[in-house]
Design a protein that fits this description.
The chain contains 14 helices and 2 strands. Helix 4 (about 40-55) packs antiparallel against helix 9 and helix 7 packs across helix 8 (about 125-150). It folds into 2 domains: about 1-30 and about 200-289; about 35-195. Strands 1-2 form a two-stranded antiparallel sheet. By secondary structure, the protein is mostly helical.
Length: about 290
């Protein structure tokens, strides 16, 4: 069977979807809505971003709640999590934390890893750029994963929170890729705390919503999420916007989360959608029901 491809008018259709998108509505449903107020400086943006992305498992309501719970345990200031003077109290404060399969002892260990790192380096951007110099974005993500895993003993399941595309190619590495997007892009709604990574080389954080929509728009022929699918979707978007390909990530993701895309043929919902002419559901089956 021939792989599905979008129409030749797809670039205009996607730009129209972006232009009409209700950003303010969807920002309230996104984890970054909790993180943005915490990012009072670059260090706080980075710390909030690392913990927020690590907790980005499950639905957005639960993720936002988990981040808010973590911040409350830190007394409202994420900088306390990496303050050496608070390390003695941190373990107790986080001991009862739970979000899906993420536990407080794992977050305490992450805070310890970051505290040790910040004693010698100003920003995680240095680690990412170290890997970037050797292997581009994939090398940067691999180095970032290695730094966050730390060395020495770690709580059960901790290192699995930070997969590398070089070691786990079946994983889309969504959470670390999302963290890097938050840090690098200065465009709304991202934080732009890093200054030296080119936005044109970013990869899309491929969650289930983005993958489903990308597959049905013909941006990837891969039916399962993997790093190979990340590369395909990112390259397809880069051809549209070479300087800022992942600017469409938020829109594609929240088109799924919000129900703007019902993920089935429904003319009452899909009728006004700018990318309906490109969608596999509508191009392979006759007219609307």
């Amino acid at each position: 069977m021939t792989a599905h491809r979008p129409t030749t008018e797809f670039p205009g259709h996607l730009r129209a979807l972006y232009a009409r998108f209700a950003f303010d509505r969807s920002l309230a449903d996104d984890p970054i809505s909790v993180i943005r107020p915490l990012a009072r400086d670059d260090r706080r943006a980075e710390v909030a971003g690392v913990f927020g992305a690590t907790l980005a498992i499950g639905n957005t309501t639960a993720i936002r709640g988990a981040i808010e719970d973590l911040v409350a345990r830190a007394g409202g200031d994420v900088a306390r999590l990496v303050d050496p003077g608070w390390s003695g109290s941190r373990r107790e404060a986080l001991s009862s934390f739970r979000h899906r399969w993420i536990r407080g002892d794992q977050l305490d260990h992450l805070a310890r890893v970051l505290t040790n790192y910040y004693a010698e380096q100003e920003s995680l951007e240095s680690a990412f750029l170290d890997g970037w110099d050797r292997g581009g974005f994939v090398g940067g993500l691999d180095m970032l994963a290695r730094v966050l895993r730390g060395s020495g003993p770690a709580p059960r399941g901790y290192r699995a929170l930070f997969p590398s595309p070089l070691e786990a190619p079946r994983s889309p590495c969504k959470r670390l890729t999302l963290f890097v997007r938050w840090m690098v892009r200065a465009g709304y709604p991202d934080l732009g705390a890093w200054r030296h990574v080119p936005t044109g080389e970013l990869k899309v954080p491929l969650d289930q919503h983005v993958h489903w929509i990308a597959y049905h728009l013909g941006l990837t022929a891969r039916r399962t999420r993997s790093w190979a699918a990340v590369e395909e979707v990112s390259e397809a978007l880069r051809r549209l916007e070479p300087i800022d390909p992942v600017k469409y990530d938020f829109v594609l993701c929240h088109t799924g989360i919000s129900g703007d895309c019902p993920k089935e043929r429904d003319l009452s919902v899909c009728g006004p959608c700018s990318v309906r002419p490109d969608c596999l559901l509508w191009r392979r089956r006759g007219s609307s029901r």
